[in-house]
Amino acid sequence: MADPLFAVRNSFYLGAYNLVVQEASELEDLPHAAAIERDTYLYRAYIALGSHQLVISEINESSATSLQAIKLLAEYLSGSKSKEDVFATVGEWLADVTSNRNPTVVLVAGLLYTYEENYVEALKVCRSNLSLEIAALAVLVYLKMDRVDKAEQAVKAMSQMDDDATLTQQATAWVNVALGGSMVQDASYIYQELGDKYNWTATLRNGRAVCFMKMGQWEDAEADLLDAFNKDAKDADTLANLVTVGLHLSKNVARYSSQLKVLAPNHPIVKRLEAGEEAFQQAAASMA
What we know:
Layout: H1 6-14, H2 17-26, H3 32-48, H4 52-58, H5 65-78, H6 83-95, H7 103-115, H8 119-126, H9 132-144, H10 148-162, H11 166-179, H12 182-197, H13 202-214, H14 218-231, H15 236-248, H16 254-263, H17 268-287
Helix pairs in contact: 1-2, 2-3, 3-5, 4-5, 5-7, 6-7, 7-8, 7-9, 8-9, 9-10, 9-11, 10-11, 11-12, 12-13, 13-14, 13-15, 14-15, 15-16
InterPro entries: Coatomer_esu, TPR-like_helical_dom_sf
Pfam families: Coatomer_E
GO biological process, one term: protein transport
């Protein structure tokens, strides 16, 4: 039997968020559980598009637990609920024998811990392996911890779950980039295949651009990133990568860095730029 949510789910993983909204809105007369899952992807797409308040206003106390978890994610990202209250709710859900078996609840808990760089707690919830996306989050967390060996093991586990899935292919590309060497070229082929097969989103363009950067192909990376920028001028990863590429190509990156500072003031690239500017000012002051 065909999976009615395949297109919505796949578009979300590829970063085609406007398409998710369109596809999800066209899916009607679904069984109750499928309708809830559809709405989780719909509201997550709205969050990715920056419409946090829409999500918060439309999901109420009578909504399913999965949707309550998505609302909590929106409240955290928008800053409309204190971190203390957010993680108190997460703790209650994870202590509940029903909620802690809900894949969306577990995924959101893992995402929240990851955002807080609490990787130990993130991995604890990811061990449930309740879904392929939770397994992919574990891969991402291991990479953030510079544990490429563990990330490789997690990808192998994903392959056993669904080797051909878009998420498995993406996670494989992440690990290949981290491994470096000839594996980076393999990662670029994965992004190429996904883009040609489905939709060249900003997410895929950024993924391949990182591969090009690792291989020293800065002009090719810039071409991908400019295409990504045209698709989504507010994507923080695109702006950060454009700054990196521009600096290597000796280009003026003031426009991109200014946008990045406004959209993602805590981005690692912003912090590095600010640290560089501060060091320059201190050096200039010492010579005055």
